[in-house]
Design brief:
It contains 1 helix and 31 strands. The protein is mainly beta. The strands form 7 sheets. The chain has a 7-stranded antiparallel beta sheet, with no helix packed on it. Strands 2-1-31-30 form a 4-stranded antiparallel beta sheet, with no helix packed on it. A hairpin with a 4-residue loop joins strand 9 and strand 10. The radius of gyration is 20 Å and the shape is flat. The termini are far apart. About 40% of the residues are buried. The N terminus is likely disordered.
C-alpha cells in the first residue's frame, strides 16, 4: 500500500516528540464508558488487588498484554504489571493475531507484540485482526486489509466490524448483513443493527427488537429483547423491562433481568450493577455476588485479571 511521504515524516516527528517529552502510556478509545472516571487498576478473580490504580485508562488483557494510559500516552503492560511496550501512542487497543491497533495524532496503524510498527498509522478508524483481516476506514468508507496493510476487500461499507467465527457484519444501504473473508455476502443485509458471532450465534436487531441468528442467518432466538450482547461462557446479556439479565443458548432466561447494567461472562464471572447500587461487582452463573459491588467501572476477566476503577 502506498504511503505518502509527508505522512511518514509527520509520524516520525510525532514519535520523536513523544519520546523526548517522556510522556508515558495509553488512550484506549474502546473504553468510552470509562472516560473521565479517574484512575484504573486490575484485580484477580478473588477480588484482590493485582495492580493498584495508577492508569488514566486501561483495557483488557489479550495475548498477555494490555493497553494502558498514563499522562495522556498509551503503552502496554504484561500480566506482571511491567511496561513492555513504551508509552508513545495516543491510542491503543487489544492484541489479536499478534497485532494491535495504535494511533498517533488521529491516524491509526498496527504494532506487533514487540512494539514494532508493522502497518504505519494512516487510517481514520480501525478494528482488530481476525482471520488475517482487519476492518479499516478512510474517507468514511470501510474495507478490509491484510497483515501487510493491503486492501483485500475494497472500501465500500458505511460500517464494518472485525471477523468472528468467519463472518463480519457490514453496513450496506442502511442494513447490516454478514460477509465471509472473500467479501461475499453469506447473510444478506436485512438487519437494522448486528453484532459479532460467538458460540455460533450473533445478536441482531429486527423491527426494533433484538434476537439471535445462526451462521446461516436463521433466527434461532426470536427478537423479543430491548437490547442484547454477544454470548460469553454460553450466556448472553439481554434487556427486558428496562433491566438486564442473561439467557442461555436456547433463549431461556437463566438469570433474571434485575440488574441496571451487566457485561459478558468470562471464566464464570460477569460485571454487574444491581438496581440499588451505582457500583459494579461480579456475579456468578447463578446470579449471586461473587465479588460485592465496589467499583465505578469494571470489565470482564481476561487471563485471570480484570480492569476496574475504584470510587
Amino acid at each position: 500500500m502506498r504511503i505518502q511521504a509527508n505522512r511518514l515524516v509527520a509520524f516520525a516527528m510525532a514519535v520523536v516528540v513523544a519520546l523526548l517529552a517522556l510522556t508515558v502510556v495509553a488512550d484506549v478509545r474502546l473504553r468510552s464508558e470509562a472516560d473521565n472516571l479517574g484512575t484504573f487498576g486490575y484485580i484477580g478473580r478473588d477480588g484482590s488487588v493485582a495492580f493498584p490504580a495508577r492508569f488514566e485508562l486501561a483495557d483488557r488483557f489479550s495475548e498477555g498484554l494490555a493497553a494502558v494510559r498514563v499522562d495522556g500516552r498509551t503503552g502496554y503492560i504484561d500480566t506482571t504489571g511491567r511496561v513492555v511496550i513504551d508509552m508513545i501512542w495516543t491510542d491503543g487497543g487489544p492484541f489479536n493475531d499478534g497485532i494491535a491497533p495504535v494511533g498517533v495524532d488521529g491516524e491509526f496503524g498496527y504494532i506487533d507484540t514487540k512494539g514494532v510498527l508493522v502497518i504505519p498509522p494512516q487510517f481514520d478508524r480501525v478494528g482488530h485482526f481476525s482471520d488475517g483481516l482487519a476492518p479499516v476506514a478512510e474517507d468514511g468508507l470501510y474495507g478490509y486489509i491484510d497483515r501487510e496493510g493491503v486492501y483485500k476487500i475494497p472500501r465500500q461499507y458505511k460500517s464494518a466490524r472485525s471477523f468472528s467465527e468467519g463472518l463480519a457484519p457490514v453496513l450496506v444501504d442502511d442494513k447490516f448483513g454478514y460477509i465471509n473473508p472473500e467479501g461475499d455476502f453469506v447473510i444478506s443485509p436485512t438487519f437494522a443493527r448486528a453484532g459479532d458471532f460467538s458460540g455460533g450465534r450473533a445478536q441482531v436487531q429486527d423491527r426494533g427488537r433484538w434476537g439471535f441468528i445462526d451462521p446461516t442467518g436463521t433466527m434461532t432466538i426470536l427478537p423479543t429483547f430491548a437490547d442484547a450482547r454477544p454470548f460469553g461462557d454460553g450466556l448472553s446479556p439481554v434487556m427486558k423491562g428496562g433491566r438486564w439479565g442473561f439467557v442461555d443458548e436456547r433463549g431461556a432466561i437463566v438469570i433474571d433481568a434485575k440488574f441496571n447494567r451487566v457485561k459478558n461472562f468470562s471464566g464464570g464471572l460477569a460485571p454487574a450493577k444491581s438496581e440499588r447500587s451505582s457500583l459494579y461487582g461480579y456475579i456468578d452463573r447463578e446470579g449471586a455476588w461473587a465479588i460485592e459491588p465496589q467499583f465505578r467501572f469494571a470489565e470482564p476477566f481476561s487471563e485471570d485479571l480484570a480492569c476496574v476503577r475504584w470510587p
